[in-house]
Amino acid sequence: MKKVAIVGLGHSKFGVRKDISLREMAYESVKGAIEDCNVGSVDEIEASVTGITSDEFAQQVVPAPIITDYIGMVGKPNVRVEAACATGSAAIMTAYSWIASGLYDIVLAVGAEKMHEAGTSHATEIMAMAGDSQWEYGPFGVTFPGFYAMLAIAHMAKFGTTSEQLAKIAVKNHKHGVSNPNAHMRKEITVEKVLDSFMVAYPLHLYDCCLITDGAAAIIMVSEEKAKELTDTPIWIEGIGCSTDTATVMERSTFTGINSTRKAAQMAYKMAGITIKDVDVATVHDCFTIAELLAYEDLDFCKKGDGGKLIDEGETYYDGSTPINTDGGLKSKGHPLGATGISMAVEISKQLRGEAYNQVEGAEIGLAHNVGGSGQYIFVNIYRR
Amino acid sequence: MLFGKNPIITQTKVSEFAERLKENKIMGTKCKKCGQIYYPPRWACAKCLTEENEWVELSGEGKLATFTTLNVGGTKFEKDIPYTVGIIELKEDQNIKIMGWISNNIDRENLEVGMDLKAVPKTLEDDKITIELIKV
Ligand SMILES: [Zn+2]
Known about the structure:
The complex is a heterodimer of chains A (385) and B (136). With 385 residues, chain A is α/β, with parallel strands linked by helices. Chain A has helices spanning 22-35, 55-58, 64-70, 87-100, 120-128, 133-140, 144-159, 163-178, 191-196, 224-230, 259-272, 289-298, 307-312, 329-333, 337-353; strands at residues 4-11, 47-51, 78-81, 106-113, 199-201, 204-205, 215-223, 235-244, 281-283, 365-372, 377-384. Chain A has a domain at 4-118 and 212-230: Thiolase/Chalcone synthase (Peroxisomal Thiolase, Chain A, domain 1). Chain A has 15 helices and 11 strands. In chain A, strands 3-2-4-7-1-8-11-10-9 form a 9-stranded mixed β-sheet, sandwiched between helices. Chain A starts with a strand and ends with a strand. With 136 residues, chain B is mainly beta. Zinc ion binds at residues 31, 33-34, 36, 45, 47-48, 50 of chain B.
């Protein structure tokens, strides 16, 4: 396989974007990615992969062509991919394999989602139906926060994890998000504010949950030969792990972790030839605070059951021993489903280039962990400068 | 007879599941080839890719593995909030898990992981039937 690098980074402002349409938001991020490297114009890009999770959110069946057309790539190869909340990472994996195989040398991966227009109730339903609608959502109304709430209850019962510890994760990510101009909610919060907020799904409060956000992100991925022409700061994709888990949550073998994270992580570490100790900075999928805590453990940043301790000790702040979600995470930055995996790649690439807002000094190896649904899809990518 | 409060997928090879609930039985399926028991029931075994399955009755008795109370529902469940659902692990095989509505007879404050609960069918209006988790 050929080596694959990320050379161009583009990121739209995440937030409630009443000013802009899906295709225009995607354009914002694609233009940013082109201007970020020496590719010059879109004419040099051979093919594109589009990540959009939901036609319902897009209010457009077959949503990729409206973007492909708008960014001037008509006539070139394109596919749209979908892997629930990990759609952006699926786009990266697809583009990676196109380049690694030698099919193309310059590929654009763009992810976008416009979610706020659906409204909270409809958005909740769209995301709940990403679970098993025959056996879980239709019969029992278990929403996406509901599934993670059940994982939180099981974790609390087995390991004594507390709501305060979960709240501390939200506090950390909001603190990181303040420095990120593209973040949705750039404001610091306190543990008390989290614990006093509305209980969405017991034991998860409103401030344990990510926002409903509009946004887009894009990266330009190239072969080794092209990387030399296009940038002085290529970021190499060294490992890709992808795993899946049962469609229903009730059929999972454990409720105190996500097994597919463990599997994807092992694949990625092996492919990159590293261990977790080599990772200098990470973005993990914090759609809910408990999801970040489970990721600490399932990625092996700490032992199973010790996730609460890791945040208690403040180790996952950007200046701690294990910097995680330095861009504010899904929690503060926002989680436009199709864009998230690519947004994670943007943050890790910036960290490894030394251009991040909350820079981890001397970071050389980065990890991105992206969950689709409640573990139905997992991607773990390892990046190196 | 349809399964669930807001049935979405109703045309299935295992529609008999809902009929058996009406007879007060919670059924899984068992692969005749490898012996794997499935709950929710499946027409085909994912291990053997065979349709040689038989219905097996589950005790419904088990321990609460986890639960949550939802104060925000999707559009279809807005009128039901707040509602509490849980998952039990069956006493005969903890790998078999059943989701159900926590009965209104159980105080939410008293819910605890590991407590004994029983899954039982519960008839709803409009020819629908669901599963409730009750105190033993
Ligand atoms: Zn079988």
